[in-house]
Protein backbone atom coordinates (compact mmCIF):
# COMPACT_ATOMS: atom_id res chain seq x y z
CA UNK A 1 0.00 0.00 0.00
CA UNK A 2 1.33 3.47 -0.86
CA UNK A 3 1.35 6.47 1.45
CA UNK A 4 -2.29 7.37 2.05
CA UNK A 5 -2.32 10.79 0.35
CA UNK A 6 -0.60 9.30 -2.70
CA UNK A 7 -3.36 6.67 -2.89
CA UNK A 8 -6.08 9.26 -2.86
CA UNK A 9 -4.27 11.72 -5.07
CA UNK A 10 -2.82 9.40 -7.72
CA UNK A 11 -3.46 10.96 -11.09
CA UNK A 12 -5.19 14.01 -9.58
CA UNK A 13 -4.17 17.61 -9.14
CA UNK A 14 -0.82 19.02 -10.13
CA UNK A 15 1.36 16.36 -8.51
CA UNK A 16 4.59 18.13 -9.35
CA UNK A 17 7.41 17.49 -6.90
CA UNK A 18 7.88 20.30 -4.43
CA UNK A 19 10.75 22.71 -4.88
CA UNK A 20 12.81 24.17 -2.07
CA UNK A 21 11.55 23.42 1.45
CA UNK A 22 9.29 26.12 2.83
CA UNK A 23 9.37 27.35 6.40
CA UNK A 24 6.29 26.75 8.50
CA UNK A 25 4.77 29.75 10.19
CA UNK A 26 5.36 29.82 13.94
CA UNK A 27 2.67 28.63 16.31
CA UNK A 28 0.51 31.31 17.87
CA UNK A 29 1.89 32.56 21.17
CA UNK A 30 -0.11 32.40 24.40
CA UNK A 31 -2.01 35.50 25.46
CA UNK A 32 -0.16 38.30 27.26
CA UNK A 33 -1.22 36.93 30.66
CA UNK A 34 0.70 33.73 29.96
CA UNK A 35 -2.38 31.54 30.02
CA UNK A 36 -4.42 30.76 26.94
CA UNK A 37 -7.67 32.63 26.38
CA UNK A 38 -10.88 30.62 25.97
CA UNK A 39 -10.62 30.76 22.17
CA UNK A 40 -6.93 29.74 22.24
CA UNK A 41 -7.71 26.65 24.32
CA UNK A 42 -10.47 25.46 21.94
CA UNK A 43 -9.75 23.86 18.60
CA UNK A 44 -10.89 25.87 15.58
CA UNK A 45 -13.59 23.24 14.98
CA UNK A 46 -15.20 24.22 18.29
CA UNK A 47 -15.26 27.96 17.67
CA UNK A 48 -18.04 29.88 15.93
CA UNK A 49 -17.25 30.44 12.26
CA UNK A 50 -17.37 34.19 12.92
CA UNK A 51 -14.20 33.79 15.07
CA UNK A 52 -12.21 31.67 12.59
CA UNK A 53 -11.06 32.68 9.13
CA UNK A 54 -11.80 30.03 6.48
CA UNK A 55 -8.11 29.62 5.62
CA UNK A 56 -7.28 29.12 9.33
CA UNK A 57 -9.84 26.31 9.51
CA UNK A 58 -8.47 24.69 6.34
CA UNK A 59 -4.90 24.82 7.68
CA UNK A 60 -6.09 23.16 10.92
CA UNK A 61 -7.94 20.47 8.92
CA UNK A 62 -4.84 19.67 6.84
CA UNK A 63 -2.71 19.56 10.03
CA UNK A 64 -5.26 17.22 11.66
CA UNK A 65 -5.28 15.02 8.54
CA UNK A 66 -1.48 14.89 8.58
CA UNK A 67 -1.47 13.86 12.24
CA UNK A 68 -4.11 11.22 11.54
CA UNK A 69 -1.94 9.79 8.76
CA UNK A 70 0.96 9.17 11.16
CA UNK A 71 -1.06 8.10 14.22
CA UNK A 72 -4.10 6.34 12.77
CA UNK A 73 -6.40 8.46 14.98
CA UNK A 74 -8.90 10.14 12.64
CA UNK A 75 -11.32 11.36 15.32
CA UNK A 76 -10.37 15.06 15.25
CA UNK A 77 -10.27 15.36 11.47
CA UNK A 78 -13.59 13.49 11.19
CA UNK A 79 -15.14 15.97 13.63
CA UNK A 80 -13.96 18.77 11.34
CA UNK A 81 -15.52 17.16 8.24
CA UNK A 82 -19.17 17.21 7.18
CA UNK A 83 -20.70 13.74 7.04
CA UNK A 84 -21.52 14.40 3.35
CA UNK A 85 -17.84 14.89 2.40
CA UNK A 86 -17.16 11.78 0.32
CA UNK A 87 -13.53 12.68 -0.37
CA UNK A 88 -12.90 13.21 3.35
CA UNK A 89 -14.49 9.84 4.17
CA UNK A 90 -12.42 8.08 1.50
CA UNK A 91 -9.16 9.62 2.71
CA UNK A 92 -9.89 8.86 6.37
CA UNK A 93 -11.12 5.33 5.66
CA UNK A 94 -7.79 4.66 3.90
CA UNK A 95 -5.87 5.87 6.97
CA UNK A 96 -7.95 3.68 9.29
CA UNK A 97 -7.56 0.62 7.03
CA UNK A 98 -3.77 1.07 6.99
CA UNK A 99 -3.52 1.18 10.78
CA UNK A 100 -6.07 -1.61 11.30
CA UNK A 101 -3.75 -3.77 9.18
CA UNK A 102 -0.91 -2.87 11.59
CA UNK A 103 0.69 -0.62 9.00
CA UNK A 104 2.22 2.75 9.69
CA UNK A 105 3.57 5.90 8.11
CA UNK A 106 6.65 7.73 9.35
CA UNK A 107 7.59 11.22 8.25
CA UNK A 108 10.39 13.51 9.41
CA UNK A 109 8.63 16.80 10.12
CA UNK A 110 5.01 17.67 9.48
CA UNK A 111 3.26 14.99 7.37
CA UNK A 112 1.08 17.49 5.49
CA UNK A 113 0.99 21.26 5.43
CA UNK A 114 -0.67 24.10 3.57
CA UNK A 115 2.15 25.94 1.84
CA UNK A 116 -0.02 28.58 0.18
CA UNK A 117 -3.57 29.86 0.04
CA UNK A 118 -4.36 30.99 -3.49
CA UNK A 119 -7.91 32.27 -2.95
CA UNK A 120 -10.92 32.39 -0.65
CA UNK A 121 -14.28 32.81 -2.37
CA UNK A 122 -17.92 32.82 -1.27
CA UNK A 123 -19.95 30.55 -3.54
CA UNK A 124 -23.61 31.06 -4.62
CA UNK A 125 -24.43 27.80 -2.76
CA UNK A 126 -23.45 29.45 0.52
CA UNK A 127 -20.25 27.42 0.78
CA UNK A 128 -16.81 29.01 0.94
CA UNK A 129 -14.15 27.74 -1.48
CA UNK A 130 -10.53 27.94 -0.36
CA UNK A 131 -7.92 27.08 -3.00
CA UNK A 132 -4.72 25.82 -1.39
CA UNK A 133 -1.46 24.09 -2.18
CA UNK A 134 -0.80 21.17 0.15
CA UNK A 135 2.63 19.62 0.56
CA UNK A 136 2.95 16.00 1.71
CA UNK A 137 6.45 15.54 3.08
CA UNK A 138 8.69 12.56 2.31
CA UNK A 139 8.73 9.51 4.55
CA UNK A 140 8.20 5.77 4.70
CA UNK A 141 5.11 3.60 4.51
CA UNK A 142 4.82 0.11 5.93
CA UNK A 143 1.57 -1.57 4.86
CA UNK A 144 1.68 -4.20 7.64
CA UNK A 145 3.98 -5.48 10.40
CA UNK A 146 5.67 -8.07 8.15
CA UNK A 147 6.27 -5.92 5.09
CA UNK A 148 9.27 -3.88 4.00
CA UNK A 149 9.02 -0.11 4.33
CA UNK A 150 8.57 1.82 1.10
CA UNK A 151 9.90 5.34 0.75
CA UNK A 152 7.77 8.09 -0.77
CA UNK A 153 8.83 11.51 -2.00
CA UNK A 154 7.60 14.94 -1.11
CA UNK A 155 4.76 16.04 -3.37
CA UNK A 156 2.56 19.12 -3.68
CA UNK A 157 -1.03 19.29 -4.85
CA UNK A 158 -3.58 22.05 -5.43
CA UNK A 159 -6.93 21.48 -3.76
CA UNK A 160 -10.22 23.38 -3.91
CA UNK A 161 -11.58 22.93 -0.40
CA UNK A 162 -15.25 23.69 0.24
CA UNK A 163 -16.48 24.73 3.67
CA UNK A 164 -19.98 24.92 5.01
CA UNK A 165 -20.94 27.14 7.90
CA UNK A 166 -23.48 25.83 10.36
CA UNK A 167 -22.45 27.76 13.44
CA UNK A 168 -18.91 26.42 13.04
CA UNK A 169 -16.93 25.60 9.90
CA UNK A 170 -16.98 22.03 8.51
CA UNK A 171 -15.14 20.81 5.45
CA UNK A 172 -17.84 19.76 3.00
CA UNK A 173 -15.76 18.54 0.03
CA UNK A 174 -12.29 18.54 -1.46
CA UNK A 175 -11.78 19.03 -5.17
CA UNK A 176 -8.53 17.28 -5.89
Structure description:
It is a single chain. This protein is of the alpha+beta class. About 19% of the residues have low confidence. The protein is globular. It has five helices and seven strands, in the order αααααβββββββ. The protein has one domain: Nuclear Transport Factor 2, Chain: A. Strands 2-3-6-7 form a four-stranded antiparallel beta sheet, covered by helices on one side. A three-stranded antiparallel beta sheet has the order 1-4-5. The longest helix is centred in the middle third of the chain and has 18 residues. A hairpin with a 7-residue loop joins strand 4 and strand 5.
What's this entry about, in short?
The chain has five helices and seven strands.
Principal-axis shape:
globular
Q: Please count the helical segments.
A: 5
The proportion of strand residues reads 25-35%
Q: Which percent range fits the helix content?
A: 25-40%
Would you report the number of β strands?
7
Q: Which class do the helix and strand fractions yield?
A: alpha+beta
Question: Mind telling me which CATH architecture this is?
Answer: Roll
Give average pLDDT, whole number. 82
Strand order of the largest sheet: 2-3-6-7
CATH topology name:
Nuclear Transport Factor 2, Chain: A
Which series of helices and strands comes N to C?
HHHHHEEEEEEE
Q: Which ranges are low-confidence, i.e. pLDDT below 50, for 5 or more consecutive residues? A: 6-39
The CATH class, by name, is Alpha Beta
Largest sheet, in brief, is:
4 strands, antiparallel
Cα-to-Cα separation, first versus last residue? 20 Å
Number of domain units: 1
